[in-house]
């Protein structure tokens, strides 16, 4: 009965999502597009960090690799987005796999520093390679996604494209976690020594976690490129990587649904700050125009700190506690 109820709820949710462009304004659709792209990237980070236990502070760099790959392939070869999006994911996966190899030797703080280097390597490569390759500091213009003569240029058209890709990637994430690869990720996260004794290839498992996480980031980067239609290196900074980490912390580590909840919460906070911030800056002139960016970082940093202190297991942990309490009520345990 519970499985049937979950299927009904999922079907209703999909119907509401499909009808969303007819129910809300264009501004909300633009925000939902951002959430769908962020969901793909955050789910990949959840697999790498939440399930496999591998700290990753370079998710925005992997996203950037996917965005640049998709834009170059689309503009110079004319490939359809049905090919550029998975190819962008594979390019990012290769880049992430190189850093995943370091996870076989180091862990913890030193692994975080290594993934942090991905951000600087990505920025250095884009800015110093010939501008005819990646556009340098001028960025790259991305043609609209097109298939069979249909161009995805409006917010609504992009919403349906992003929704379809996000649904496929999220369904794939659930499949990965329920497979032997997912069980290996969890075993390595809990105790890599014990996992190795049980016969799990720990080095390959850690590297595969980075590969899968980077693949999701690359796909999300390709969707971002098609939505923005112009990409520059300043769109994939360390701050963006921290935002993705915040999403899985707030939603709950080790939960695909938790990553989605975290995306909704963090993106909502960002939109509220971006909307209210300019009004505050105009009302209190001495704060300056940088109050929006500074306030967003301060508030999001505070949210991360509060969750690490008060609810380190995220919102999904609290939700699971409430569900358990409801099922056993009125008994205490």
TrEMBL record:
UniProt key word 4Fe-4S: no
Protein name as catalogued: Branched-chain amino acid ABC transporter permease
Entry keyword Cytoplasm: no
Membrane association type: Multi-pass membrane protein
Bilayer-crossing regions: 60-75, 81-101, 108-127, 159-177, 207-226, 238-266, 287-310
Keywords assigned by UniProt, alphabetized: Cell membrane, Membrane, Transmembrane, Transmembrane helix
Native source species: Seohaeicola nanhaiensis
Predominant location category: membrane
Cellular location(s): Cell membrane
UniProt-listed Pfam families: BPD_transp_2
